[in-house]
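In this supplementary section we document a worked example of the pipeline. Step one takes a protein sequence of length 409 as its only input; no multiple sequence alignment statistics are reported here. Step two produces a three-dimensional model, which step three serialises into C-alpha cells for compact storage. The input and output of this example are shown verbatim.
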Amino acid sequence: MTSSKSQDSPSPPVGLWLIGGRGGVAACSIFGMLLLRRNAVPPVGLVTAQSAFHKAGLIPFDRVLIGGHEIRAARLVDEIRAFHRTNRVFLPDWIDLLEAELDDCDARIRWGTLSGASSAIRGLAAPDVPRDASPWEAVRRLQQDLAAFQQEHGLRHVVVVNVASTEPPADSAAFPTSWEELEKALAGGELSPPPSTLYAVAALSEGCSYINFTPSLGASLPALTELAEIRRTRHMGCDGKTGETLMKSVLAPMYRARNLQVLSWVGHNIFGNLDGRILDDPQHKATKVRSKDHLVGDILGYAPKTVVSIEYVEDMGDWKTAWDHIHFSGFLGTPMVLQFIWQGCDSLLAAPLVLDLFRLTERADRAGISGTMPFLAPFFKSPYGVSDNDFFSQHGALLDWVASLSKDA
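The serialised model returned by step three reads:
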C-alpha cells in the first residue's frame, strides 16, 4: 500500500494506457479528460464525480499521463475532427484549444500487435505494424513499451484499458489454468491467443492493472487471475455496459420484483462506427451477442425467449439506436408489452466509464487489492466472478467499497 504524500509534495503521476488508442472510445476518453482537466465542461456521465466518491481519494486528472497501443495509422486530433464531422458532437473550438495536448498524447501511442488477430482486424492495420515472430515475441515487445512508458515518465502505476474492437469468440477451456503452464505454452509457441489476451499478459506481467472494456477474451483466464495475484496487481472486465444492456439490468429486476413473467425480450441494435463495421463480421458479432444476451435470464432466474440482433448501418456513425420489445404476462395471464428506444452516441456513453474505471482501479492499487475487482461489476455486461446482474445491487456494492476507503490510505 502506497503511503500518502504531503500537500507540498505531489504524488507521482499515473499512466492510463489505452489499447486501441486512436479509436472512438479512446479518442473521446482522452478528449474528455483533457477538457475536464481544464474545467471546461461539467463532469456529466462520470460516476466518480458524484458526492459519494468525493472522500475516496481518487486521482485528479492533472496527475494522469496517457499512452497506448494502436494498429491504425492516424493522427489523434484528426480522428477527433472526423468524429466531430460525422457525429455532430463537440465544439470545434475545443479541438483547436486542445490540439497541442492531443498531439502530446499521440506521441506516446505505440504500434500494437496483430498476433492472433482475425482477418477483419488485420484489414484495419497499417503496413508499419510490426509482424511479431510469435505470440511470445509480441508479449515481450508490448512489455517493453509499457516498461518504457512507466520508467521514462516516472509513473507510480499504469492502468491498461482495452477499448479495441471486439474479437471473435475464443474457447477459454483451450488454455492452461495455471500461469506456469500458460507461460510455458506461450514461450514454447504452443498457443496463439487473441491480441486482447497478449495485451493482458504483457500488462499483468509488468505489474500494470488491466481492464477489459470489450467482450474479447482478455484476462478472463484463471491463469491470468493467478498471474495478477503473483504480481500483486489486478484486472476486471468484461464488456462495458453503456446502453441497451444497462437498461436490461435496470428493467429486469423490476419484472422480478413485481412477479411479472417475461415471455420474450427482443432487442435490435444499429450503428455505423468502426466497432459496428467489425461486428458486421459474423465471427466478431457472435462474441458481442453472447455478452449481451445472457443478462435477462440471469436476473429473472428463468429463460424467456430472447433475441439480440446487431446490424451495421454506416450512415448512423457513432449514434447507436436500440429498439427493445418486451412481451410479458400480467395478472390473470393478461399479455402486456413494454417497448423502449435507446439512442446515444456510443463512444460518448463509454468514455466517462473508461475514466471512472481508471480512477477506481488506480485507487484499488493504492488499497493493495489484487486479482479481480467485483465491486466494479456495475460497469460491465459480464463482470468477472459476479453472478448478480441487478444493476442496483452491483452499484450498491460499489458504493460500499468506496465508503470503506480512507482518503489517506
